[in-house]
Each structure stands twice: as C-alpha cells, then as structure tokens.
Amino acid sequence: MNTLKVALLGAGNVGSEVARILIEDSEVLAARAGSKLELIGIAVRDTATKRGQHIAPELLTTEAEALVDQADLVIELIGGIEPAGSLVARALKRGSVVVTGNKALLAERGAELFQLARENGGHLGFEAAVAGAIPILRPINESLSGDRITKVMGIVNGTTNFILDAMDTTGADFADVLKQAQDLGYAEADPTADIEGFDAAAKAAILSMLSFHADFRLGDVYREGITSITADDVDAAKEAGFVIKLLAIAERLEDGVAMRVHPTLIPRVHPLGAVHGAFNAVFVEADNAGELMFYGQGAGGRPTASAVMGDLVSAVRRLTRGVGAAKDADEVVEVRSLDLKPLGIEHVMTSYCIGLTVTDRPGVLSRIAAIFAENGVSIEQMRQSRGNDEENQASVLRIITHRGSEQALAQTVASIRELDVVSRVNSVLRVEGN
Amino acid sequence: MNTLKVALLGAGNVGSEVARILIEDSEVLAARAGSKLELIGIAVRDTATKRGQHIAPELLTTEAEALVDQADLVIELIGGIEPAGSLVARALKRGSVVVTGNKALLAERGAELFQLARENGGHLGFEAAVAGAIPILRPINESLSGDRITKVMGIVNGTTNFILDAMDTTGADFADVLKQAQDLGYAEADPTADIEGFDAAAKAAILSMLSFHADFRLGDVYREGITSITADDVDAAKEAGFVIKLLAIAERLEDGVAMRVHPTLIPRVHPLGAVHGAFNAVFVEADNAGELMFYGQGAGGRPTASAVMGDLVSAVRRLTRGVGAAKDADEVVEVRSLDLKPLGIEHVMTSYCIGLTVTDRPGVLSRIAAIFAENGVSIEQMRQSRGNDEENQASVLRIITHRGSEQALAQTVASIRELDVVSRVNSVLRVEGN
C-alpha cells in the first residue's frame, strides 16, 4: 500500500482533533482510503505553545510554505483570508488535494480557488465549511442533482438555537439565557454576529449558492436577529402549538431566489421543531423528493474534524484508484444552469403572528379585522386575553394570519399601528411550515 | 454537447415518474449532467397497457435485451430477481452505467453485480434502493468515511410509522388505524411484511452493511412487529413523555454488530419523535460527528424517482468529464476493513418500559422492586394508577428501567411474571434515546 503525505495547517480546535484522528485511527483510515496517510507536519504560528498530548512536538513547524510543498494532501484549518488563501492556492497549483473548513475564504475567493483546482488537476473539499458535521454538500450536489430544489430552511447557528431552545424550555428571558450561554461557552463575549443573525445570513448565502447554482452574497440576505424575542413571545407561541427558531430561508421564486434570516414560528410537530440545544438542521423542499432534512452538529472540534476527514478519505479513494481527485464537489461552483437573481423579502409569501395590546371595548376587534380585510390578508386564528391592567381596560391580542404577500402583511401592520385603540404592537413574527 | 442514450426498464410507479422527469426536465438535466440524456425506450411486459400521457407509445417495447444493448445508461425499475438481474448484468458487462432501486436484487446478487461493474468499467448506482428519497448512501459512505459509526436507528417503514403516528395522534386502536391505512393506500391488503417488521429488518441489514462495512442478512436481525401495541401502551408512553416508533437499530459492540427491529419508546423531544405520517428517518451516531439524522420520504413514485435521477446525473457528470463512471458507490460493498460478526439481541444494553396489572395491597411494590434489585436492574421511574376494577383491587404499574443488559431485563420480566401478586404483564417495550 502506498503512502500519501498529509500537511495540516493550523492546530486549533478543529486542527488538533484532525491530528488526533490521523494518528489514532491511521489503520482504519488506510483500509478505507486505500493508501496510508502520513501526517508529515503541522504548521502553527508558535511552536512553543502546548498542544494536545497526541501531537509530538517535532511535528510542529512555522514553515507553512515548505510544508505545503512536500505534501500530497493539505488540510487548511487556519481560518481567515491570509495566509490561508495563499497557502491553499499554492497547494492547488501543485495539483494537490486540499480540504478546508474556511467559510470566509470560500466566500471571498472561492471561484478563483475552484478554478485553480480544475486547471491543475487538484481538488478542493469544503464540506466542513458548511454546517459542520452535517453532510449537506453531497446530498444537495449529487443526490438531488436530478431534482429541483424549491426551498431551503435551516437552523444554521447553534448559539441562537441554544438560546431560543433554553427560553422555550425554561421560560426565561433573552438576557438571562444569553448570559448563561456565554458562561457555558455557547456564546461569545461579543455575541453580535450570532444573535443579530449575521452568521446565519452568511450561511444562508452559501446554502443558496449550493442549492440554486447561482452566486449570492451576504448582502443579498434580508436579516433580523433574535434580540427582541421576549419570554412572552415564546409563551404565546407555545400556547398556539409553535416554537420560535432563527431560520435561514432561501426560496426559489419565479425569477430569482429570496433569502432571509429572521426569528420564525414553526409548528412544534415540524421536524425543525425537534432541533434542540446547539444542534443545527437543514430542511430542504424539492419538486420530486419532497421534504428532506439533514440534522447534526453545526460546529465544534470533533464534529467538524469528522467532515474534514470525510472529504480527505473520499478524495484519497479517487486518487488511489487513479481516477483523479477532483471532479466532484467542484461542480457546485461550476455548474450554473440558471440565471437566478437575488430578490428582496418583499417578493415572498409568508404569514405573520402579530401581538397587540388594545383597548378592551366593543368594536375594537371589528376595526382591526377590517384592516386585515382591506389589505387582503385573511386571519387564521385570533386569541384575546385580558391583561392585568384592569384600570386601563387593556387586553392582549394574538393574531396568526394565513399566507399573504410580505408587502400586504407589512402594510397591514403599519395601518394597525396607527389605530387609536391599539396602544402597542408587541411583536411581529413570521410563521413557516404551517 | 454529446448525447447519451438512456434505457428505462419498467414503467410502474417509479418508472413512469422517471420517464416524466427525463422528458419534462431534459434541458435542466443536460445542463447539470454535461450531456443530453435521450430516453430511447421503455421496456415493459405489455405495450398495450395505458401509460401516463407524457409517455409516447412508440417508446414502449417488450424487447428489453435489445434495448439494453443500445443504451449508454440503463435504469432498472422492474423489481424482483429475474429478469431484472440478467438485464442489469448484461448492461454492466457492456460497461454501462446502471441505476437501480431494486432492494431484493441487491440483497441476493449485490456482490456479483458490483464486481461486474468494476471489471468492466461500469457503475451500479443504488441510492434509490435505500430509504427512498433520503440521501443516505453518500453521507454514510463518503461524508463519514473518516469517522466511526457506532449506532444507527431508523424509522425505515412508512406504513408502520403512519399507523403508530395515527394511534399517537388520535388515541385509536391498532386494528382501526390499520384499516384506515389500508383504505388510504398506506398499507397493503396483506400487511404482514410491514406490521411484523420484515421490511424494516431487511432495511436494517442493508443499513448495517453500509454503516459497518460487513455482510449482513435479514436472518441476522432480531425482529418484533407492532401488532401487539395497544392504545393503552401509546397513552402510557405519552404520559411519560415518550412516543412509540418501530425502530431498526444496528449497534456496534466490542466484537460485532447487533441488529434488531422492535417497537421502541423514544422521548417525544428526540429528533426521531418528530417523524410523522409515512415519513422515514435514519439517525446515526458516530465517534466524532456525534448525532446525525437524515429525514425524508422513504417510498413513493416521485421521491424514489428523485433518488434515481440523482444517481444518473452524478454518474453522467463523471462520464462526461472522462473520469469513468464507477469508483464511488461501489466502495460500499468493496471496502471490508473490519471483520464484524452479527450478534444476537442478548448482547445489547437497553432499557425496558414494563406495564403490569397487580393486586393492590401493601407489600406488592416492594416485592416487585426486590426482583429488579436481584437482577441488578435499576428503576428510573415507577407509576401506579388504580384500575376501574374496584372489586378485585387491581392497579396498573408502569416501570421504566435504567439501562441494563437485555439478558438481565428479560430475566427480570420472567421472574415478575411468576409472582402471585402480578395478575398480568400487559406490555414490555424497549426504550431508546433516553
């Protein structure tokens, strides 16, 4: 059996797990891949930093370029654009197999790197960059290659799912749960990228690119975070049989794809409703396959390392059999069968769950219902509960609409806001999967 | 763009959908595959039978062998061993790409057919034969190729899931729901293969083969059906936060794989608990990836046709790029890195939910608890509810145990059955995912 040389770039959270697997599982990997995989070095910034006990100090080097030049297979887990980008390009120019988990690099220089892989007979594997351990790239790109994806809905950010799930389970407030998530390491000290939906929006763009074979960017994605979700919202959703999730949604419309990230009510019995804690899931609707869902851990050292190793072993199998390593995942970026443009949220059909505080007197409901009718929005359910505020005779209304155009729904809310009998619009949340 | 000739064998439920997709979506398929796909004929037993309106009568032929000999790509959807097996072998000997959804044929002659594909540079795609539209073959075989699968739990039979889900939702009895499922076409007139777990057991063997790279057969799988599940069992499970599902479970143990199919209590919040109606799902546990789940439709014309087309387009992409079609799914059967043997259910650790009718008098609980203790089985929860049978002073006990060896649990139940204070053992169900 021949031996292939593996260079590992980066020894962080994921990198050190990849090193461990390469060393501990070398026999099984060789049997599966058809070649022995020899870890010849790990490029790090500082060789003095202590690493895991399975990493022999002599493997560490600061000479990343020299390491790349000696390797048949390069695993890039440094992250960020540079020096990662130059090292990946260098390896691909040599015709090497490169496996990366670097979302930022793909978003910024993906097209160029895939072309380098094609031109030089190399291969760029990137399953680990999309939804961590969840196999999503091959299912979308190969298993569904004879079908037409119409909609993708994903829980793609573990931090926000952990927070919303904890709010749902404990009834606690957003701020308390965020604090707890930070203490447990599920949320960063500066949680903005997660809780404001930026991370989910970037993933929505990548999933859309994979699903609809078109170039989309973060800026094409409509975005709302979860910071305004209250314990009351969660409670009200529960009462109506729903759970609130931060969803990344990409939808094929007549002449383009609408992408959006926002907190969303989904039925508790929906498969996405059973995604708890920091787990992720991607729900796909296709013309012929119908509904599919892929569930798993979207982040973390070991799960992401599993995806890296899957790319590596699959590529080595092809190399070993003399098939040439490239020629599968590369299609994702190459095949552009459709000329779909990004569309704003105003193009989608959705339904709303609206919470209002209103004056509790006769005729209020009919005035509110009239506004829905004027805008052509039909009401699926309405529930009134008297507030504690006896003196002001206020009551709280929860209205869930049928599906209508986003524009009609937004106009309805704007008109309701102006009614004198409405003292407050407490919340406006979209509903999916109903 | 070059054109490849496609022969379709069979025009049943799945075949007619495949024909429709090949005809209606020809442009999109050509763009994705890199070659035009021309449906040159459909082999059927009787050309006089009426087919869907998209199928031109001149496409139909009874000369299957002649059709196979003219084709670059052969789609086998006849089912059964013969003539399907001879036709598939004939095509593979010619070095053609063959895509099949034929579970029975794979189980009986898989090894021989994969070898024919390898020897002659052909390819045998079979994603459609495993869990219908759910992409499971590539995720297990490629995405997890650098990981170690430890356990697979699947809802792999739509009929039984439809029945159990309806019992859970409506509180109805097994017999009534079975009748309803038959009326709706979800269950066959003779439902034995489904409700006695034979279909699920065959799928358990195939999933185990894929997951653990070893040869397993239907006969290696322990099997219990769902015919003895009562509305009371479903109710009691619900009360305790569980739902009853027919699971196909394959588990890696020290020196082998234990495979079993039986009705199982799983927590309602478990991802498998959100699999409703006739949907299927496969839940996978791997050393590094952790928990993964793949969800979708396990049967039906259009979903299965989607899986067939995915195999076809993926293979054509490789052909078009001159890579040779084979060399990916074939590994599934070829790679035998481990020598794992099938193990009986007595080797597994599980937990039980036991329902008993007992005499309601002091000392009964302690006698029952003593038997658990003697067998080293610890009790997680016990619930006593008084029955209606005031005169006989009977009460009903539900006991859920912690995890113990199957042998110890079975021994516990046998001893309890002999107690004079136990008038009836109402049900014994295993619990997973707790």
TrEMBL record, chains A, B:
InterPro entries: ACT-like_dom_sf, ACT_dom, Asp/hSer_DH_NAD-bd, HDH, HDH_cat, HDH_CS, NAD(P)-bd_dom_sf. The active site is at K203 (proton donor). The keyword Repeat does not apply. Keywords: Amino-acid biosynthesis, Methionine biosynthesis, NADP, Oxidoreductase, Sodium, Threonine biosynthesis. Its cofactor is a metal cation. This is Homoserine dehydrogenase. L-homoserine binds at E188. The lineage of its organism: Bacteria, Bacillati, Actinomycetota, Actinomycetes, Micrococcales. Belongs to the homoserine dehydrogenase family. PROSITE patterns: ACT, HOMOSER_DHGENASE. It comes from Neomicrococcus aestuarii. It is an enzyme of class 1 (oxidoreductase). It comes from the Bacteria. NADP(+) binds at L9, G10, A11, G12, N13, V14, G15, S16. GO terms for molecular function: homoserine dehydrogenase activity; NADP binding.
